[in-house]
Amino acid sequence: MSDAPILDVRNLSVRFRTEGGEVPAVNELSFTLGRGETLAVVGESGSGKSVTSLALMRLLPKDAAVAVTGQALLEGRDLLSIPEAEMRRLRGGAISMVFQEPMTSLNPTTPIGEQVAEAVRLHRGMDGRAAREEAVRLLDLVGIPAARQRLDDYPHHLSGGMRQRVMIAMALSCDPSVLIADEPTTALDVTIQAQILDLLRRLQERTGMAMVFITHNLGVVAEIADRVLVMYGGRAVEQAPLRPLFSRPLMPYTAGLLRSVPRMELAGRRAGPLPAIPGNVPDPRHMPPGCVFHPRCGHHQPGRCDAAAPVLEPADEAREVRCLRWRELAA
Amino acid sequence: MTALVELRELRKWFPIGGGLFRRAQQVKAIDGVTLDIRRGEILSLVGESGSGKTTVGRAILRLLEPTGGTIRFEGQDITHLGRAAMRPLRRRMQLVFQDPFASLNPRHTVERIVAAPLAIQGEGGGRQRVMEALEMVGLQRHHAARYPHELSGGQRQRVGIARALILRPELLVADEPVSALDVSIQAQVVNLLLELKERLGLTILFISHDLSVVGHISDRIAVMYLGRLVEVAETGDLFRTPHHPYTEALLSAAPDPDPDARRRRIILQGDIPSPLDPPPGCAFAGRCRFALDACRAAPPPLREIAPGHLSACIRDDIHLQSPLDEGATYVPAG
Prior knowledge:
The complex is a heterodimer. In chain A, strand 11 and strand 12 (320-321) form a beta hairpin. In chain A, helix 4 packs across helix 5 (128-141), helix 5 crosses helix 7 (160-171) and helix 7 runs parallel beside helix 8 (190-207). Chain A has helices at residues 49-56, 84-90, 102-105, 112-124, 128-141, 147-150, 160-171, 190-207, 218-224, 242-247, 252-260, 326-330; strands at 7-18, 21-33, 38-42, 66-74, 77-78, 95-98, 178-182, 210-215, 227-232, 235-241, 313-314, 320-321. Chain A has twelve helices and twelve strands. Chain A is globular and about 70 Å long. Chain B has an eight-stranded mixed beta sheet, sandwiched between helices. Chain B has a four-stranded antiparallel beta sheet with strand order 2-1-4-5. In chain B, a hairpin with a 2-residue loop joins strand 4 and strand 5. The longest helix of chain B has 18 residues, at 183-200. Chain B is globular and about 65 Å long. The chains are: A alpha/beta, B alpha/beta. At the A-B interface, helix 7, helix 8, helix 9, helix 10 and helix 11 of A face helix 5, helix 6, helix 7, helix 8 and helix 9 of B. Chain B: GO terms for molecular function: ATP binding. Chain B: This is ABC transporter ATP-binding protein.
């Protein structure tokens, strides 16, 4: 990994204007992504993780209802301000995306070979025959058995896992330096999820692409991430390398989330209730004052945590945390 | 412990594609399931999409007409009972749905939703009983006047559970009741189900694909693959000493939130075969690293391999990995 990040996101904010007022979906989000690195962005509904990925790809509706501010520098070029024509070249080129639901992202009326070949033709200017050959190579690369024979299959002929492989083949068609994967395994069965995670890891080793992997599943994070960004209520609340985050979370939300997931090695012992986080995920329209997590936090101090909003501050090496009390709590 | 529900060779086939001159093909959603649900236990039915786990749940509640086999509820054969004959039994068995958004009528208040089973059974005492049911699931009286869209996902699922409990059923069939919920909310609902089981002496059939939740909540686990049971055991036994290679693969594939347990995963090749054209022998043989010719000849029967531990694998001579193993099967990452 060279030290200059491939992607450098600075103060990204996304606001939706609705009849009920302005809804801040993402607030002042900053992160970097190193070459070949996998950053997992973890969050629950309303955390802003998916809006972030759509903002980076410039796929949010372009109208007065959405305001995107900040910068997202991909090798120096700001994805948020370059002309649309240039963005169109980058999208699916240098930066590419895989979505959660492969059925709705593929065109149901076009054979898969043609869809992959189309991506190759558009971005790499290959002619029909060469593009088709490249489609075979890509489908083969993502583990579609007998790829050549399946070029004329339609998406509905394929299982969910196979469709997701096709999506990945399309996303990889231009050898992206950054792949954004938004819950790419969430709609899949666990044995198929394991196949796709394995595939993404092997492709990454081969191509050196960096990945932003968006998920709500901490098990998947443990499996694939180098570094983790935890989001809550549209904000980054903790950022750390994988291992320290799991072994010593600094933000009470991260700690609570980790504790609330039943551990496999305790199966069958049922040692009392799970340590659940009380309350509900906050509604972005009515964010609590102060720390957005304070109403659910076991460590919150009245008059302090509900009064001042904590900033994201550097903690240990390569870590950041947004909590007024992290020092006391870590002690 | 006595059985509350007994399934014997239960089958549910769905005909598809038949026409005037063409015979319908049969999708064998359930193909010979024999299983007891013991009174007072949480039995989990796990499997991937197409395994038939949801169909089993619906057949027990008689929301589907079985194609063959029998279903007994407290000893009574209910396999082909008609609507009227089922009504008194309905109050004793209730369903909790996966999606708390789709399963609640958006135009009805919480009170009306929760009271609906009372109306169907022609019973009174509505308001008081609704309040009791809401209290039981951790909601407050003021929630009764709310509409579903005013509630969070977790609260909606509590409403679904309150509705299922208002008639004080003995059996709850919970079909993926936490998978649509946020991670931080799942634990709340899992705890609620465990607490209700203790408090009300409920029997719960918990249908799920999430092995870590299943490992926590269940007394016993039944694993399904392509319409058949492949393994049934007490939770600890299943996790510690899986006997069927599909169970092993399923446990191995389950993501565990522990970076130090990045295991050498068993990555299965291929997908679940089509239930339209199931292989003749063991349905898992095509993806199994231990399969022999004998496995492909005839479907292996579910047999007792240890007390209370059933498996449909003919191979007793292999050692399978467990997520509880120390050492060898765990490769420290990094």
